[in-house]
């Protein structure tokens, strides 16, 4: 497939993932990461860190979904540093909560669980904080409860697997992460995180 937008690759990659076309899915996520690079370079020409941080974070997620773990972690670190800068400068106070939530996601994927929990103590309901707590406490019941909550949330929002695009991390990614944490078959078993 020939795509010119990362979002199109993401939709196609997620569809392939849920149709058990793993190789095609991985190719699509790699292509999405490449297209994000093009977008990031264009944005860097005139935009603020806030605009760039989202795209860098999305690229990290695409690389993770493509199974490119080392490269994904490097890009998550880059996004983390951008969020730290944004939170420290506080130039965009109306986006602060969003930056904090995205920052917590980067901490989760960098396995900085304790820091994620500490900084997210007022946001324990969001997935990176809740999963971090469950991992550190080795609490399989909490993971199971999170999976149930994700399914309810997706049903209420009427979002099926592969239907989200343009987000930093899709709700169904958290579902697959939960399954993997429980040792159940997951669409992301190929990712050796």
**Structural category:** mainly alpha
Strand element count: 0
Number of helix segments? 9
List the uncertain runs. Answer: none
Given the C-alpha coordinates, what overall shape results? globular
Helical residue percent band: 55-70%
Determine the N-to-C terminus distance: 28 Å
Beta-strand residue fraction: under 5%
- The Cα radius of gyration reads 16 Å
Mean pLDDT, to the nearest integer, reads 91
> The biggest beta sheet, please?
none
Element-by-element helix/strand order? HHHHHHHHH
Layout of helices and strands:
Blueprint: H1 6-18, H2 22-44, H3 49-65, H4 69-89, H5 96-109, H6 113-119, H7 127-136, H8 140-157, H9 171-181
Describe the structure.
Helix content is 69%, strand content 0%. The protein has 193 residues and is mainly α. Helix 2 packs antiparallel against helix 3, helix 3 packs antiparallel against helix 4 and helix 5 packs antiparallel against helix 6. The longest helix has 23 residues, at 22-44. The two termini are 28 Å apart.
Observed structural traits:
mainly alpha; 9 helices; globular
How would you sum up this structure in a few lines?
It contains nine helices and no strands.
């Amino acid at each position: 497939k020939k795509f010119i937008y990362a979002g199109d690759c993401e939709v196609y990659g997620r569809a392939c993932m849920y149709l058990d076309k793993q190789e095609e899915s991985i190719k699509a996520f790699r292509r999405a990461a490449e297209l994000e690079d093009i977008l990031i370079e264009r944005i860097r020409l005139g935009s603020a860190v806030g605009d760039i941080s989202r795209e860098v974070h999305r690229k990290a997620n695409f690389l993770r979904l493509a199974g490119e773990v080392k490269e994904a972690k490097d890009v998550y670190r880059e996004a983390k540093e951008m969020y730290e800068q944004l939170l420290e400068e506080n130039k965009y106070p109306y986006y602060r909560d969003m930056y904090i939530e995205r920052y917590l996601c980067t901490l989760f994927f960098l396995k900085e669980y304790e820091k994620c929990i500490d900084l997210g103590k007022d946001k324990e309901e969001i997935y990176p904080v809740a999963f971090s707590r469950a991992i550190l406490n080795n609490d399989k019941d909490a993971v199971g409860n999170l999976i149930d909550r994700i399914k309810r949330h997706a049903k209420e929002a009427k979002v099926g697997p592969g239907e989200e695009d343009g987000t930093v991390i899709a709700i169904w990614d958290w579902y697959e992460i939960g399954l993997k944490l429980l040792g159940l078959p997951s669409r992301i078993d190929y990712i050796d995180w």
